[in-house]
Predict the structure.
Amino acid sequence: MHKAAGNGHTQIVLDLLRHGAEVNSIDNGGYSTLFRAVANGSKDVVEVLLAHGARCDLKSSHGWSPVGAATVEKRTDSLELTIKSRTDMNTPVDPKGSSIWRFAIEENLVSVQETLDELTPHTDGHLLSGGIEVRQQMI
């Protein structure tokens, strides 16, 4: 299923899930199905996996979460989907333990910061206050 998810084969992923495939399985490389879909920009597959209960907090064997993968790969559409699925914004997204805001600011990922700012109304202001807090700490 990981290969289908990473390659954007939505119908294959759906068929596999209907036949009992585990949505949160980990492949031999240490990556979840959601991680593979997010990292490769397979937005439709990300939507399907989240709808079937894929966990955004599962880390790869290298310490990256799917949210971290979306951030580093600048997959803002997948990032938006994972955040709207009620991802805890304080959960570390990289091996250093950075929050999504800290990582986006430290790496100067402007498009990711803009996406986080846009999502503020959908998360009761938590993202905005997190971004301001991290920015102030870094000054």
User: Anything to note?
Assistant: Confidence is low (pLDDT under 50) at residues 122-132. Residues 2-138 form a domain with the Serine Threonine Protein Phosphatase 5, Tetratricopeptide repeat fold (CATH 1.25.40.20).
